[in-house]
């Protein structure tokens, strides 16, 4: 029996007829459907890669939101409003994840069956990364002028960009271990960038 | 436009003509404005003198009569204890918050009502800010009804982007009391951008600088082909022109005291000094100096003030806006140079000092070709039309403040960071910290600080029925859901047992459902009728949708039915139409149930056919094509 064909058809909540599992709207009665369990790339019609064209991503996101945002359903029944909210929520989650290189890398690793836990704070197993981050943090703590902070932030920024390039290369080479390793590194670089930003506003405020 | 194409599910609501009008309302601290849009053009509804601004001032007479607007403002000096102004500053606030607002409020608080929501003592009555706001909204609704000769029952109401959950809920409650269904709460800068962007068909990154009477907001938006995407927003819900009035009034009173000696100032004298200060501030936007009179202890005194001196008094407040702007630009992840234009909103942006500051912050001359007092209401009206009639524009907004819950040691764990696009749902897992702990108290807070007492408390609830486990073994998943109005719902569940609890966050300082019900009873003669007709309208929407769905299905698959079966369905549809005409909600519900029963077999046969054709070798892709995606 063709199981996938059966799984691809569900029943429309509104007209009760058959509807494709991934359809946004029922082709017969036009009712909006639920978001369904699909990955973020599929949801936004993007191909699953670390290299994402951000302009295209935004265009796709706007395009889907134009059709599914709750504002389009303000005069509709409660059920349609609720479903559109679920759809828009799913689109926002997908967009926020794919827009951000760190979240995107972690998400793609999960999709490829090699999950990394970005929320687990603390223990860095990588000695080299640990030393490097400690040194940078010290330098940031010792910085007293906006110029010093800006210089550190700029150095860090170019490392962020380099790290993203390496992640891209690792994914393209199918080297998931390396991609995961670099993603953890990116996490620390991004965190340092945030700290530098916070420090910058502190330094400016108290000259 | 000759015709408009609509996507499936996007067609404008039919039977729109049966409903009352949907307006846009800017419910401001100092002034409010109501506007109506038709065919993409919005018009501010004015009084006979052409004035669009309705002062957000309410006079309560001893006989219970309520007057809103200019006439109420005129009573401010005669009967100060009967008049309420700037009530927006108290929306969603608790008695605890008043410490920070102390001395800045132009009305007397009912101190007896401790804990919970703030209450005002006016003309011997005790009123909540929600009721006062409802009186303003009711007056705006009547203004619109008189101007259009039609009933008005729905509105888009704007709120400061920086309003927290409590203040948003309070605004929605006020609308309910005033007999208005809130189509959407829209952030003021976003509404302004909508009005501005549509007018100028601008594209790119824009900043909206909104300094009103009592609130300051700044938002960075990306405008692109009718989409208005908020990138970051920030502000201060207690910073505005009122603060400058206070600074000037204090200056006048200090000058007076230096000459005539210190005396206790009465409420009426304080209000008069504030009124003089406001006039001085407004005049000094147009000229360099002037002289104003205040009266204390029956003795008038004259006070000269130059624009330079006034600007010195105002500077501390205006400087605060600059710091907030820089933080928001930072949050948006952009540089000042990326911003293509700055839109000014709010009466306080008429001050030359503010314009200079904006130019200094953003490095460019701000845009102000739309009346800054009316632009927000215009945007709200356009959005009201978009929501009821349909439109190509879309507003994508964000949460202004981070949402989190209290964890060990009074630390806040953020669940949804600020500037996250809404609607949004995010979950975080927490665990128990004691062996055998069967309940967990969940405290929801809003704000950017790390400690609980520095954030705003939104709600508390207790998740019970956690199974007896060792500390750290339970997995409690707390989910925050923020809808398109920016309102929060929180649910919590324990993963191993599925124990679940859900709370719509009724803010700690909000009204309870019982209080709301009582107010609806007291203040609205037709409250019950209103509620009944609202429920009926919702049921009718539901019923019409069901009928349309069945008719659509009949068009495609009617060959699956025998003549008799077809006739049963047609009769059931007719019954639904008759029930709708009868104005009886129960009859509509019953007719819908009959329709559902009459179409059951039809639905089963359609599903069978759908699956059979899928099995007959159609690929998933083809099926997708065939089924509309």
Structure description:
The complex is a heterodimer of chains A (207) and B (629). Chain A has 207 residues and is mainly α. Helix content of chain A is 63%, strand content 3%. The mean pLDDT of chain A is 86. Chain A has 2 domains: 3-99, DnaJ domain (Helix Hairpins, Orthogonal Bundle), CATH 1.10.287.110; 127-205, HscB, C-terminal domain (Monooxygenase). Chain A has helices spanning 3-7, 40-43, 54-68, 78-99, 101-111, 127-142, 146-172, 176-205; strands at residues 9-11, 18-20. Chain A contains 8 helices and 2 strands. Chain A is elongated and about 65 Å long. In chain A, strands 1-2 form a two-stranded antiparallel ribbon. With 629 residues, chain B is of the alpha+beta class. Chain B has 3 domains: 16-239 and 319-396, Nucleotidyltransferase, domain 5 (2-Layer Sandwich); 403-513, Substrate Binding Domain Of DNAk, Chain A, domain 1, CATH 2.60.34.10; 527-626, Substrate Binding Domain Of Dnak, Chain:A, Domain 2 (Up-down Bundle). In chain B, 39% of the residues lie in helices and 25% in strands. In chain B, the strands form 7 sheets. In chain B, strands 1, 2, 3, 4, 10 and 11 form a 6-stranded mixed sheet that branches. In chain B, helix 6 (241-260) runs antiparallel to helix 8. Residues 1-16 and 625-629 of chain B have low confidence and may be disordered. Classes of the chains: A mainly alpha (207), B alpha+beta (629).
């Amino acid at each position: 029996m063709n199981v996938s064909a059966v799984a691809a058809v569900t029943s429309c909540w509104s007209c009760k007829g058959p509807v494709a599992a991934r359809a946004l709207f029922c082709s017969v009665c036009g009712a909006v459907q639920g978001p369904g369990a699909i990955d973020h790339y599929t949801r936004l019609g993007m191909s699953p890669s670390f290299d994402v064209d951000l302009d295209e991503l935004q265009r796709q996101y706007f395009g889907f939101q134009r059709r599914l945002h709750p504002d389009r359903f303000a005069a509709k029944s409660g059920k349609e409003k609720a479903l559109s909210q679920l759809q828009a929520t799913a689109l926002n989650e997908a967009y926020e994840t794919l827009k951000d290189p760190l979240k995107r890398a972690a998400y793609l690793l999960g999709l490829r069956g090699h999950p990394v836990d970005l929320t687990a704070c603390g223990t860095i197993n990588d000695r080299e990364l640990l030393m490097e981050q400690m040194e940078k943090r010290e330098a940031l703590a010792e910085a007293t002028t906006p110029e010093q902070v800006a210089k550190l932030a700029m150095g860090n920024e170019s490392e962020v960009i380099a790290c993203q390039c390496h992640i891209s290369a690792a994914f393209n080479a199918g080297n998931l271990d390396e991609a995961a390793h670099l993603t953890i590194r990116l996490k620390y670089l991004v965190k340092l960038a945030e700290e530098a930003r916070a420090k910058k506003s502190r330094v400016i405020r108290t000259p | 436009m000759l015709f408009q194409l609509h996507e499936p599910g996007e067609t404008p609501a039919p039977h729109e003509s049966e409903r009352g009008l949907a307006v846009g309302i800017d419910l401001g601290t100092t002034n409010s404005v109501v506007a109506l849009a038709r065919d993409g053009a919005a018009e501010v509804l004015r009084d006979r003198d052409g004035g669009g601004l309705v002062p957000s001032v309410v006079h309560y007479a001893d006989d219970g009569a309520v007057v809103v607007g200019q006439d109420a403002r005129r009573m401010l000096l005669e009967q100060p204890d009967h008049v309420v102004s700037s009530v927006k500053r108290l929306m969603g606030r608790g008695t605890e918050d008043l410490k920070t607002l102390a001395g800045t409020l132009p009305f007397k608080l009912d101190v007896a009502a401790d804990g919970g929501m703030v209450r005002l003592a006016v003309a011997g009555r005790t009123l909540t800010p929600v009721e006062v706001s409802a009186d303003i909204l009711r007056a705006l609704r009547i203004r619109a009804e008189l101007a259009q000769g039609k009933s008005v029952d729905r509105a888009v109401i704007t709120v400061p982007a920086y309003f927290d959950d409590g203040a948003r809920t309070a605004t929605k409650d006020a609308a309910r009391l005033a007999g208005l269904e809130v189509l959407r709460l829209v952030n003021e800068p976003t509404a302004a951008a909508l009005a501005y962007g549509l007018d100028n068909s601008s594209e790119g990154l824009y900043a909206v600088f909104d300094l009103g009477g009592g609130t300051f907001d700044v938002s960075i938006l990306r405008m692109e082909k009718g989409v208005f995407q908020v990138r970051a927003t920030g502000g201060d819900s207690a910073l505005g022109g009122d603060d400058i009035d206070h600074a000037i009034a204090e200056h006048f009173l200090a000058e007076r005291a230096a000459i005539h000696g210190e005396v206790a100032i009465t409420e009426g004298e304080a209000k008069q000094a504030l009124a003089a200060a406001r006039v001085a501030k407004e005049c000094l936007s147009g000229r360099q100096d002037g002289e104003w009179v205040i009266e204390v202890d029956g003795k008038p005194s004259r006070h000269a003030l130059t624009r330079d001196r006034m600007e010195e008094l105002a500077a501390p407040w205006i400087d605060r806006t600059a710091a907030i702007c820089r933080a928001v630009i930072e949050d948006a992840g952009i540089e000042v140079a990326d911003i293509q234009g700055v839109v000014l909103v709010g009466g306080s942006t008429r001050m030359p000092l503010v314009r200079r500051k904006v130019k200094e912050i953003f490095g460019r001359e701000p845009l102000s070709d739309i009346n800054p007092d009316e632009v927000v209401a215009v945007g709200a009206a356009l959005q009201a039309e978009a929501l009821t009639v349909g439109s190509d524009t879309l507003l994508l907004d964000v949460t202004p403040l981070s949402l989190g819950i209290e964890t060990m040691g009074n630390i806040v764990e953020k669940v949804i960071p600020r500037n996250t696009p809404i609607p949004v749902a995010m979950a975080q897992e927490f665990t128990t910290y004691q062996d055998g702990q069967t309940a967990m108290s969940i405290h929801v807070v809003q704000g950017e600080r790390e400690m609980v007492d520095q954030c705003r408390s939104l709600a508390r609830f207790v998740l019970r029925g956690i199974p007896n486990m060792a500390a750290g073994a339970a997995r409690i998943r707390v989910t925050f859901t923020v809808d398109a109005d920016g309102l929060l719902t929180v649910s919590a569940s324990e993963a191993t047992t599925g124990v679940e609890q859900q709370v719509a966050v009724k803010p700690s300082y909000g009204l309870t459902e019982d209080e709301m019900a009582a107010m609806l009873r007291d203040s609205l003669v037709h409250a019950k009728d209103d509620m009944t007709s609202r429920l009926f309208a919702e049921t009718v929407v539901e019923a019409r949708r069901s009928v349309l769905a069945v008719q659509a299905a009949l068009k495609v698959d009617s060959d699956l039915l025998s003549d008799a079966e077809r006739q049963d369905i047609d009769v059931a549809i007719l019954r639904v139409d008759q029930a709708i005409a009868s104005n009886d909600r129960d009859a509509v519900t019953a007719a819908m149930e009959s329709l559902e029963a009459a179409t059951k077999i039809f639905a089963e046969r359609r599903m069978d056919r759908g699956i059979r054709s899928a099995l007959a070798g159609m690929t998933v892709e083809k099926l997708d094509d065939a089924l509309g995606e």
